Amino acid sequence: MTNPADDPAQARRYWDAWSQALQHGAAAGPAAPAAATASPDWSQALGWWRNVLGDAMPADARAPVGMASGPAADWLGLMQGVAGRFAGRDSNSADVAGAWREAVQGQGDGILQWVLGSLRGGVAGGFDPWLQQSAQLLEQWQRDSAPWLDMPAFGVTRNHQSRWQALTRLQQDYQARSQAYLEQLRAALEQAFGRFESKLSEHEALGSQLTSARAMFDLWIEAAEEAYSAIALSNEFGEIYGDFANAHMRLRAALQGEVEQIASQYGMPTRSEMDAAHKRIAELERAVRRLVAAAGKPTGETPREPARKAADKPAQTAKSAAAKKAVKVTPAKKSTRPARPAARPVAKKTPTSAARPARKSK
Amino acid sequence: MKGPLGFSADDLLQETLALQRKLAEGLKILPGVDDVGYGATAREEVWRDGRVVLYRFVGDKPPTKRVPLLIVYALVNRPYMVDLQADRSLVRGLLAQGEDVYVLDWGYPDRSERYLTLEDYLLRFIDGAVDALRKQADVPAIDVLGVCQGGTFSLCYAALRGEKVRNLVTMVTPVDFHTPDNMLSSWARTLDVDLLVDTVGNIPADLMNASYLMLKPFRLNLQKYVGLLDILDDKQALEDFLRMEKWIFDSPDLAGEAFREFVTQFYQRNGLIEGGIEIGGEAVDLAAVDMPVLNIYAEQDHLVPPASSRALAGRIGSDDYSELGFRGGHIGIYVSGRAQREVPAAIHRWLDERNGDGR
User: Fold this and answer.
1) Complex ipTM, two decimals?
2) A205 contacts chain B (CB < 8 A)
3) Which of A178, B89, B125, B276 has a Cα at 20 to 30 A from A147?
4) Domains of chain B listed by start with CATH number
């Protein structure tokens, strides 16, 4: 890929061509087709831009530039397109929000790929690409073996077949749970359109109108976050999220079990065996530390410094006006605790804080 | 024009051309941006236990305080957030005030550390570092500044080994994990954490990051990167952005057993409020925290809602409790310009007021 620093003329030619196309569209006036005025092909332009940067980009910039020129640009470009349809014309909030809904929904789930990929572990940057790869193999295997997997298990392979049948059920469960989770995200998106319309209506008065596509985009983000937050904090979402995450882990555990089966057949050490060794080492280290501490520990508490006694200190005094404003003093409350031993065994648990009187102040 | 949109086609054209110019500038500037480093302040290793290292930070002038100030950071991100760059450094600000600043670096746990527990983190690593500092400074107790999860750790440590903690500062520290606005906690409560840890061992950093991004998915996955397009013509702003981005995703995996204990005891059982927390078989009771406490929270914190931090009020044994509300978010409290001016000075002033002898 050409380094723009090596060939600035190439970049200039591209931007000139793009600018001319934009200006040509704008010259056609407000009634010109939206695509010509304000809906440049963002994906193409930013894809070109990212490719030109290519290896010339520092490593630290590659992921964020990928996001900026990918999902973020897709959404901003989509909003630019909607803005172009209404530029220079009378409009109302319902029409603008409706056009936005139509534009987003027209992209299908593809427009949510940035979030779905991550959650499914399905794309680069997702947290569980291993599961994604394994799941694809599993689906293929299930297709090839479907009749056999439905048969009752018996004979010398009974346990293996039974395990694989369980694996199939876990895969199906995972797909169902992930679908339920996706429905929650779709519901949040749906509610976001309503909030967007409501927020747009707050800008209908002269003087408060939105003056750029970017302002529309920012307003949409605000609406989307509010809608998402309302759903994501609900008990229903929490349950569905937990079901999804737990189904994910059950499937992963079963797949790992299969890997261990294969490893043990070839005489290879398994992860479980390594974990068992690590666990023993950790427990031994802990036991040694306790023994050393017990052997060398001085009896009694280290005396406290007098300065820390509250009685010796004046009430908090701010040294400046700014400090007075910033630091809020919590009125002192009397401590009724007995002297505290250096370490308290569980058996001597003190009453929980919940059992103490309600706090006296904030 | 009537309606919510007050722009013409020409306005849109100009907006697009302006962005196009930014992209063109980005082509020139981005190749000249170096891989971003971090850490503005010189430091020296003073103690180590396995991967856990205690660093002393060296300022432009010797500290005026004799008692060390130990910063205990969270496990979920790297502690260099407190010393990100020269003009965004809590450490540098504290050094400038005369504090003798130390930071405990947890390192990157690998599979062999899956079975580290909260007992190891608190009573082995934190306690070991505290003992080393007490011995080095020849003082009976030191000052501790706990950040986020490190603040929760510090509270528990102060409850268990309070004789070694002279003053305690907590920053953006969750205490009540069940406040209604705590999205992360809401999700964590339905998680089968035993299944998770038994399956993956150490918790992958990417999994944690995916969860954090889903707290504000539109803002953190889309709007933030549109913002990147805005600064393509500003090399300094680009480097700042990339440095922050590097920190966000430079996350260690989390030791599985410690994660299991933390989620179960704090997120699911809300043990600091409801009681029942045990670390290494010892009961943790906030009433045992009897040293002066300064609790700093961020008013726009989406990770640790202010109510979660402020729940500490009235629940500790100390009669010297102060709060400082900072107008900003969970990250802004370290890196914003206002934070640089206000936070280190407030911490130093608060410590100074309690130890006016200059120590």
Assistant:
1) 0.92
2) no
3) A178
4) 42-226+244-354 (3.40.50.1820)
